[in-house]
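Bit of a strange request maybe. I'm writing a small parser for structure token strings and I need a real example to test against, not something I typed by hand. Could someone generate the tokens for this chain?
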Amino acid sequence: MTESNTHPLEVSQQQRIKDVEHLKLLSIFHYVFGGLVALGSSIALIHFFIGLSIVLHPDWLKGDQSAPGLNFIGWMFTGIGALVVLSGWTFGGLTVYSGWLIQCRRQPLFSKVIAAINCMQLPLGTALGIYTLLVLMRPSVVELYETPKRLASSEYGALKA
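Reply from user aminoacidic:
Good idea to test on real output. This should exercise your parser:
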């Protein structure tokens, strides 16, 4: 058997540095993706305002203003647009919050749930969700979550030097 040139303690320290870097990247990716989700869902504001204008100003549409379904269609546009915008903003905010929790190393279960939900949003959400699940389920990362943040940040500075 050949001996390895690295001491087991050094491998552990190298893994810890990698884990801290991966968590830092994950938090940044969550911030960016959460912002993109919120921004993308804001496109549905167009439907919301079109529906609102149909309801409030039916004379805006030329032609037969006594159409029986015009008011209903306006409310449908308004409701569906509002639902898409509010759900997108909510989910974008929860994704950003998950990034903050990853940065602070708190509540890994919440981040895992958000990562699983992210997997449904192709293609960026799937990549982010799988990467998040893989990193957060790593035993060395679970150990990092169990150490206090102060100790971990001072330890990272000492390891990097």
